[in-house]
Write a structure and sequence with these properties.
- A four-stranded antiparallel sheet has the order 3-4-5-6, with no helix packed on it. Strands 7-8-9-10 form a four-stranded antiparallel sheet, with no helix packed on it. A three-stranded antiparallel sheet has the order 11-12-15, with no helix packed on it.
- The radius of gyration is 20 Å and the shape is globular.
- It has one domain.
- With 293 residues, it is mainly β.
- The longest helix is centred in the middle third of the chain and has 4 residues.
- The chain contains two helices and 15 strands.
- 3% of the residues lie in helices and 30% in strands.
- β7 and β8 form a beta hairpin.
- This is Phytase-like domain-containing protein.
- It holds the Pfam family Phytase-like.
Length: 293
């Protein structure tokens, strides 16, 4: 490690007046451990950190997006944690300057829960891909059918830069504790785009969303995005440029054949499943002038 960037104090979790990064889950060696209160008083929620990270292709700017809203902005309840914060940093060698901050409104599901985001990817100076999804559904979960797994787009060109001392201080808020955005804040524009859950497309390749719990059922957690330009020899003429959009899933260490402690102890989780990492590849078209790493 050569450098580290600490976000502003509105992101830092506080309990009982002190910094507390505990996720409120007991360590494996002490299942009776309890932390009080369970949720922080302010800052990022338990296990709800800066999940999305991307950079401009020229290496001048770094962007990072909170998985969901902070505690003080509705983060303690799944139906209220819609308004996540996006940070923009200017990189000058080893020097890092905090330049701007925006609000990104995450999608609300038919269940009224908010879909948290798992990754972002730079498209242009104003537009980004974002991977938003539900949780608790997929291979190895109680529910096999996900209702929202998307690569979406958000645009910050008309959004307010909310960076200021009041918003960025401990407990600083741009929304109420019930997730109601302040009337004087203009958020980014959010556009749903590409669904991972389209069975008409998935079934063409022998995989599926919902239904039987088998190795061809999509995993729960999709947490990455990458873009690769299509060789121009194989592109279709028209507006925009074609890319392969690639996404990998995690497997949350769901296995019956794992090992811990440097391989000394065998590990089997309680699910009864073996999960491999999965990958989806889409062919997509982005507007002319879009950039990618």
């Amino acid at each position: 490690m050569t450098n580290a960037i600490r976000p502003n104090d509105a992101f830092i979790p506080f309990r009982n007046g002190t910094e507390s990064f505990n996720s409120a889950s007991p360590p494996i060696y002490n299942q009776d451990f309890v932390i009080t209160p369970e949720d922080p008083d302010s800052g990022r929620g338990n296990n709800q950190g800066l999940e999305g990270l991307t950079a401009s292709p020229d290496g001048k700017y770094l962007y990072t997006l909170l998985q969901r809203a902070t505690i003080q902005e509705g983060g303690s309840k799944s139906k209220n944690r819609r308004y996540a914060r996006l940070l923009k940093y200017c990189l000058k060698g080893k020097k890092v300057e905090y330049e701007a901050e925006y609000v990104v409104p995450l999608p609300t599901l038919p269940t009224e829960k908010v879909a948290g985001q798992s990754e972002i990817h730079f498209i242009s100076d104003n537009q980004f891909l974002v991977l938003a999804r539900d949780s608790g559904s997929g291979h190895g979960q109680d529910s096999s059918e996900s209702i929202y797994r998307n690569a979406d787009v958000f645009d910050i060109s008309k959004a307010d830069n909310i960076k200021n001392a009041k918003n960025d201080g401990t407990g600083g808020a741009i929304a109420s504790s019930k997730g109601l955005l302040n009337a004087d804040v203009v958020p980014a524009q959010y556009c749903p785009w590409l669904s991972f859950n389209n069975n008409d497309q998935l079934n063409r390749f022998g995989v599926h969303n919902g239904g039987k719990q088998d190795a061809t059922l999509l995993n729960e957690k999709w947490e990455s995005l990458a873009l690769l330009p299509v060789d121009r020899e194989y592109t279709v003429k028209g507006d925009g440029d074609e890319y392969y959009l690639i996404s990998f899933s995690g497997n949350d260490f769901i296995t019956q054949n794992g090992y811990i402690n440097s391989g000394k102890n065998k590990y089997a989780d309680a699910s009864g499943f073996n999960l491999d990492t999965q990958v989806l590849v889409f062919k997509v078209r982005l507007p002319k002038g879009a950039k990618s790493l």
